[in-house]
Amino acid sequence: MRQGAGLNLADIPASAARDESGVTEAIAHFGRKHLPLPLRLIRDPAFAIRALRYALRLPTPLRTRDRWVLEQVILPAVEERSGNQTVVFVGCDYYTWHYKRFFKGHRYITIDPDQGRARFGGKEHHVDFMSNLPLLLAAGSVDAIICNGVVGFGVNDPQEADRSFTACANVLKPGGLLVLGWTPGSCSFDPMKTAAISRHFEPGGLPSLGSNFVETPTAYRQTFAILSRRAVTG
Predict the structure, then answer these.
(1) Residue 202 contacts residue 213 (beta carbons within 8 Å)
(2) Residue 57 Ramachandran class (φ > 0 left, ψ -120 to 50 alpha, else beta)
(3) Does any domain span residue 215?
(4) What is the DSSP secondary structure assignment for residue 101, as one 8-state letter?
(5) Is the dihedral of CA 14, 16, 22, 23 positive or negative?
């Protein structure tokens, strides 16, 4: 399913990598307790700046090359794609709260099972698991689902991934997009090889991305796949 030459990664500005060392360390220590907030504000200037921007309700992006690809290329392309009226964003955090600004005029839905992250979601937010999307949304009612950084950081085994991708297929319209982003070193399996992906999806495309599969030049090799819901056959 991996087709296309992909984005010209040389176009990503060097400034986009400012936070990558911190993110690489955070991935390596995922699941461990963070430093107490006051200490982290002192020791991590980049985090302190993001905390201040969030308090002022300003965008709080992570400066990493994979986030640059997501925010500068993928999200605008999804927004501009004809017919994208209902968009679901899976997984919320302080650096995603402003993504709703990409989808003004759309029905923008967020979902995350952590009640504490609800404050980072959109106006229409569900505290629930991605695998429960069919309980929340009508079949064939969604134009695009964006799921980045969830596989390996919540959806941790092939069975749960298969249930989650099947749920996505259930609520997506035929031809609807699934934007899947994952960190290969943090996954014990290849999400592209799950049965649900093979059964329900085919390579999709966003013209500005130029490919349906992009591996970013980050130390953690964040990878994006653009998939299209197969037509439902009787």
Answers:
(1) no
(2) left
(3) yes
(4) G
(5) negative
Domain holding 70, by residue range, is 14-229
Whichever domain contains 62, its CATH number is: 3.40.50.150
Number of domains in the chain: 1
- H runs (alpha helix) in 35-89: 37-43, 45-55, 65-68, 75-80
Interval 91-150: pLDDT, tens: 999 899 999 999 998 999 999 999 999 999 999 999 999 999 999 999 999 999 999 999
> Which one is predicted more confidently, 36 or 76?
76
CA–chain centroid gap for 189, Å, is: 18
| C-alpha span between 169 and 186 (Å, rounded) | 24
- How far apart, in Å, are the Cα atoms of 132 and each of 124, 128, 174? 16, 7, 19
| Among candidate residues 132, 131, 52, 127, the one with its CA nearest the CA of residue 94 | 52
Backbone angles phi, psi at 66, to 5 degrees: -70, -35
Query: Looking at the domain assignment, is residue 2 inside a domain?
Result: no
8 in a domain, yes or no?
Answer: no
User: Partners of 224 in the beta sheet?
Assistant: 181, 214
